[in-house]
Amino acid sequence: MPESTRQLVKVRTGSHSDVADSREARAYQASLTQRLFCEALFKRLREAGGELRLRNFKEEWLSSDDGLVHELSVECLPVEE
Question: Cα 19 from chain centroid?
Answer without folding.
Answer: 22
